[in-house]
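Data card: per-record layout.
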Amino acid sequence: MDLKNLMAQAQQMQQRAQQVDEALLKLSVTGSAGGGMVTVEVDGKGNVKKVRLEPGVVNPADVEMLEDLITVATVDAQQKAAEAA
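The structure for this 85-residue chain is written out next.
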C-alpha cells in the first residue's frame, strides 16, 4: 500500500510541476531602461517575448548605447520574472 501511495503522490507532484510551468509561460513581466525608452517583455521563465524601442533612442551613431539599454532592460525583466516565479 505504501508504494501505491508514493506513486500517486509522485504523479500529483509531476502534474503540479507541469501546471506551474504552464503558468510561468503565461506570465508576462516587463523590464525597462533609459527611463522607459527601451522595454523588454519576458515570460515567467525569463524568455524574451518582445522588445520595444522608442524612436528617440535609436541613434545610428551610438549603437553601443542602444545595445547597453537593451541588455539592462532584459536583465531587469528577467530579474522581475525570477522574483515572480
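Known properties of this structure: The chain has a mean pLDDT of 92. DSSP finds two helices and three strands in the chain.

See the next section for split statistics.
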